[in-house]
């Protein structure tokens, strides 16, 4: 096949032809929308670093879930910001903690209409802001596992449909799976943040979740950005430990990792388009660098093209609305 017999431009002549040979489609069915719930008196507080995204009280989040469903988005990922933090992050596994309260309220109101996934981590709840128990300045792996398993169980007891550990401790998928199974919750899937990199792109999130580490950084547990073979080992481990869905995070700067994982593993793959990706697009579009909608569609489609089944994105409501208007 070569020019002049073959002319690739023939099939790009108009939208109908382009539509017929389009290889990747974006649909709200695969989207997850992150929400931040906070123990506070205000119903909603906007996050400066993420225009369009807010923290909500338990009451306030119900209105937000209404909008998510209105946009045709099937799932949310819940993050909690507690009123008080302590050394061992006890708010994370408190039966009446902020996430547990929010999940109960959301499930009471919406039931099966919404899929509620909870982020399982310690950093929002610890006074030092690290994702586990700190001993002599180092995050202790095995002590942390116990608390993560307890947190996951309290989320499920509150009604969570799925749990998503984001801490990057070794062995946490198994610890959580065993804990849930022990309590008869063998039908609740675990979506593991299997390859989570120590990325600068979490900056805006840390304002939203109030989870900036008070000393050091997360590089002793999150992955080193230059590594992709290591990501394949992390994923293999989590699958062995019982993960149902494997996540790669961030998305846009790690599409190569995503496509490698797609080729290698036969398991649902999720990609988290993180806060920094959201902010880059929002701020650049607001300054007129490009059109917001086109940037959102192109970037989100690229994540799907690279191999993601599930995409966690702060643009989920917008994408869902465009799909409804049939302008996606
Ligand atoms: C908590 C957690 C983080 C994100 C998801 N879960 C922050 C971090 O690890 O520092 C980042 C999400 C985002 O940036 O949108 N461990
Ligand atoms: Zn964390």
Question: Can you walk through the features of this model?
Answer:
The protein is α/β, with parallel strands linked by helices and 328 residues long. It has one domain (25-324): TIM Barrel, CATH 3.20.20. It is 39% helix and 17% strand. It has eleven helices and twelve strands. Strands 1, 2, 3, 4, 5, 8, 9, 10, 11 and 12 form a ten-stranded mixed beta sheet that branches. Strand 4 (75-81), helix 3 (98-110) and strand 5 form a beta-alpha-beta unit. Helix 2 packs across helix 3 (98-110), helix 3 (98-110) packs parallel to helix 4 and helix 8 (255-264) packs parallel to helix 10 (292-306). The chain starts with 14 loop residues before the first helix and ends with a helix. The relative contact order is 0.13. Ligand PBG is lined by residues 119, 121, 123, 131, 166-167, 202, 205-206, 218, 274-275. Zinc ion is lined by residues 121-123, 131, 166-167.
Brief digest:
This protein is an alpha/beta fold and 328 residues long. The protein is built from eleven helices and twelve strands.
Q: Topology of this protein?
A:
Elements: H1 15-20, E1 31-38, E2 44-46, E3 54-56, H2 58-70, E4 75-81, H3 98-110, E5 115-120, E6 133-135, E7 138-140, H4 141-158, E8 162-165, H5 172-182, E9 191-196, H6 203-209, H7 229-241, E10 245-249, H8 255-264, E11 269-273, H9 275-286, H10 292-306, E12 310-313, H11 316-325
Parallel strand pairs: 1-3, 1-4, 1-12, 4-5, 5-8, 9-10, 10-11, 11-12
Antiparallel strand pairs: 2-3, 6-7
Helix pairs in contact: 2-3, 3-4, 4-5, 7-8, 8-10
The structure holds ligand PBG and zinc ion (ZN).
